[in-house]
Amino acid sequence: MRSTGESTDLKIRPETPADRAAIHALHVAAFDGDGEARLVDRLRADGDLVLSLVAIDNGQIIGHVALSPMTAPFPALGLAPVAVSADYRRRGTAAALINRGLDLVRDDRWKGVFVLGEPSYYERFGFSCRMAEGYQSPYSGPYFMALSLGGDRLPARAGRVDYAAAFSSLA
Question: What confidence category does residue 6 fall into, taking pLDDT thresholds of 50, 70 and 90?
Fold first, then answer.
């Protein structure tokens, strides 16, 4: 084991069509229901999975992260959902998936990423509630955060941002 708690066999790669059932099952188990699993399926069906990465340990999918396009004043992505198998939590798996995903989209045309989550967790990746304050969204508030992928500020400081249409089904 590494000092981060990650297994030495952990591999992160883009999802393949053969992974879809395992990703679905992972989200159902991780969230104790099928809302996030259906969200990923719909993002995929709508062509809105810009990046979908899986974490694999000993040949099994134990984690998943998705990034999808957002409507924003600049090219932006939404980070969600993130799921890790219960037996692999608190070992750095989610952090490894998020870091790899952010590294991959930094090299692309995207300028920022938004996330809805616990600030004490997501701040370690550079997300900031303050950076998201000027943006109007149904999710605006103390858990809505933004990250600039090109420096310490986003290309615009305010505007309307919306997640992909599939997120509206998460009621």
Answer: very low
